[in-house]
Amino acid sequence: MENTLKLSxxxxxxxxxxxxxxxxxxxxxxxxxxxxxAERRGITKRELAEVVERDPAQITRWLSAPSNFELDTLxxxxxxxxxxxxxxxxxxxDRAKPNDVHPLVVERPQMTVEIGHPxxxxxxxxxxxxxxxKFIDGQPDLKVVEASIAVAEQ
Length: 154
Hints:
Layout: H1 12-41, H2 45-51, H3 56-62, H4 71-80, H5 103-107, E1 112-114, E2 121-123, E3 131-136, E4 139-149
Antiparallel strand pairs: 1-2, 3-4
């Protein structure tokens, strides 16, 4: 049977990853907000528990690690603190692309790796001043540029 769906199937691993990422983001925002309000207004977990009609131990569990609490619970906690959460949906294609390579590395044309040296070097257009990089598993880590410039021997 031919796949007539207009959507691509989502791998189980990807679903699990994004579910946990969403939990982590909501948890981080909630914990930060509760901590800020507790410091600013002197609110305790016990007082928060009384307002949301829950056991103080439950509040401690919710604020200790990301969990799968319901949106109603999140709303109750924020309402007790006089707040609500703004939500926004963003397409992956609309997100800014991560900068995985240092801009100075991108500007260096025709880079070559010289592994035969006692200290591996990556050289650019000027072979007299090669840039030294850290290597991970035999491959240059182009994200980490050392501050010193090695002088190549001729």
